[in-house]
Give the backbone structure.
Amino acid sequence: MEELVEQPSIRPSSSNESKNEAIVYEGQLERVFKGRRPRILSGMRPTGKLHIGHWAGALESWVGLQEVADNFFFIADYHALTTKLDSTDITQLSLEMMTDWIAFGIDPERSPIFRQSKVKQHTELFLILAMLITKARLERNPAVKDQVRDLGIGEQMMTYGHLGYPVLMAADILLYKGDLVPVGEDQVPHIEITREFARKFNEHYQAARGNVFTEPKAYITKYARLPGLDGRRMSKSLGNTISLSDSEDDTWNKMRKAVTDPAKVRKGDPGTPEICLVFTYHNKWNPDGVEEIRQGCSSGSLGCVDCKKKITEKLNEAFRPAREKRRELEARPEFILEVLNQGETKARTAAEETMSEVREAMKFG
Ligand code: TRP
């Protein structure tokens, strides 16, 4: 068995996690796949316009992975029903989100983009997988418990759909035989369930060519959690985000109000950069200048306003071309629909190939 050693700078936490076979950390791809091009499948729930936390935690790595892997990226629109039953704006939110994907670097020629709801094989495999897992196993899943807690609903209001969230997610992944699934760390329990499904199915049903499914690994990136402007996790519902598509002025107006070290009241006061969320942003978007910021902040020579101006410049510089591209794409809604159409055709072909193996292995002639 290959040992997956964590990168200490990335994950200083407990050692048993580093041996978790279900996880690959950023920077380990070459070692794990040894030159083979992995198949990647990842998705996001359609939340509309994305924020810089989505970029740092997911989209940026998706964009980079296109160089070393074959990718499918999908919009988990059915999964969105677990957070909001009202689906009136689901199509709009999906289109907004994928406009960001494309503007910020997903190349639909290389990486098909599709909606879960447009590839019926997801629901078909979901039904079959549902037979292969016990209710007790699903109830033990910490990710579902967290989700229900985050939604602020009690166990009483938990639906069959919430409980089955990882079943649908496993279907999403297994259909495309993904080797690697870029997700946030909170999603690792779902990937573990997906691996169990692959093993269970393969044990029960053998196809002519052997195992139908591969066991995927979670792919965890360095900035999985970027703090929001108030220091809590960045989330649209908390109103503490900077959107990828915000104008340069809006970016400044939001950054201006970011919470900083409360002990640093005015320029001249020494601050503690390590506890400041703005410093986290410098780490991410101003790697060359971060040391200077650290010194200026701790000595007091740098004030918070100047520090925020600097990072705003860096963000705006980094995102300028993509924001420009986004404005162009907004003027071409027919292009976005065409991209979806093509992606959905490719996804259906891949998914149907897997489903015919599944049906054959199960003797559903
Ligand atoms: N659960 C993921 C999230 O909330 C979205 C998702 C659904 C997903 N199915 C997936 C991600 C399959 C990766 C692979 O962010």
Remarks:
- Confidence is low (pLDDT under 50) at residues 1-18.
- The first strand starts at residue 23 and ends at 25.
- The two ends are 37 Å apart (CA to CA).
- The chain has two domains: 20-226+333-361, 246-330.
